[in-house]
Amino acid sequence: MARREILEWGSIAERYAAWLNDEENISGRAFTDIVTDAVLDMAGDPAGKRVLDLGCGEGYLSRHLARAGAVVEAIDGAGEMLRIARALSGDLPVSFRQGDICGKLPYDSSTFELIVCNMVLMDVDDIGHAIAEAARVLKPGGRLVFSVVHPTFFDATGEWRSEDGQPVYRPRRRYVEEFSYVKTLVGLDPPARLTHHHRPIQSYVQAVLAASLVLSGFAETSMSRDRRRPELTRFHFTANNLVIGATKPGGAEG
Ligand SMILES: C[S@@+](CC[C@H](N)C(=O)[O-])C[C@H]1O[C@@H](n2cnc3c(N)ncnc32)[C@H](O)[C@@H]1O
């Protein structure tokens, strides 16, 4: 039986792909461009590398990496996402596979020079296992780059209310706790309801260190710095995403 998160994502695959590929829909495209640029910056030149796209969704990052000269393996739990990914990827050198990234990955140890995991780990309930498996299949000297919605600001975990005419801030939960809830992904038509796993930044960093990886990149992306769409900068004063790079010791780069 597939995990709840995978079933949820599978059920919105077509809506998600339409949203992501709609140049006019700023909530999808603009948001995605910013985080993807940061992931690719941190990943470095993928040309000639064996790359794994972990939680590839409908595969746009896999296609980008393949066009840049990488040989790409891509895995996602949702068959519906993979059907779209295969249809959109044509003859590009991308090999898509269905699998649970919280389980044992279907790849040999020390296979990949680069692993990207774009906007996935806040949707999985066991990042420790997912990051440890990524570390296993990385070659020594290879790099994992992952992005998540920014844990500090996404849904802000609280709200301002007016009480007796005075503004009062009521936190829903404490930032430092890990907890799950159902989020609404706006911008999709209709909006989607999906399980979200909140964890503080330290949980991601600790999972990287527990997998014996070395922290090698850290960035916070924000629409307030979007060079492509200056008209959006007035809407966002916080960071939208967190991007983390982690390198496996050893090898030429380690
Ligand atoms: C927000 S989408 C991101 C997809 C893609 N990386 C992108 O940037 O568009 C999250 C993806 O993670 C996948 N996913 C969630 N939990 C998973 C798991 N345990 N194993 C494999 N895939 C999973 C979902 O099916 C979905 O395609």
UniProtKB/TrEMBL annotation:
Gene3D superfamilies per record: Vaccinia Virus protein VP39
Keyword Mitochondrion: no
Any single GO BP term: methylation
Domain Methyltransferase type: 52-146
Keyword Repeat: no
Source organism: Nonomuraea diastatica
Record protein name field: SAM-dependent methyltransferase
PANTHER family xrefs: METHYLTRANSFERASE, UBIQUINONE BIOSYNTHESIS O-METHYLTRANSFERASE, MITOCHONDRIAL
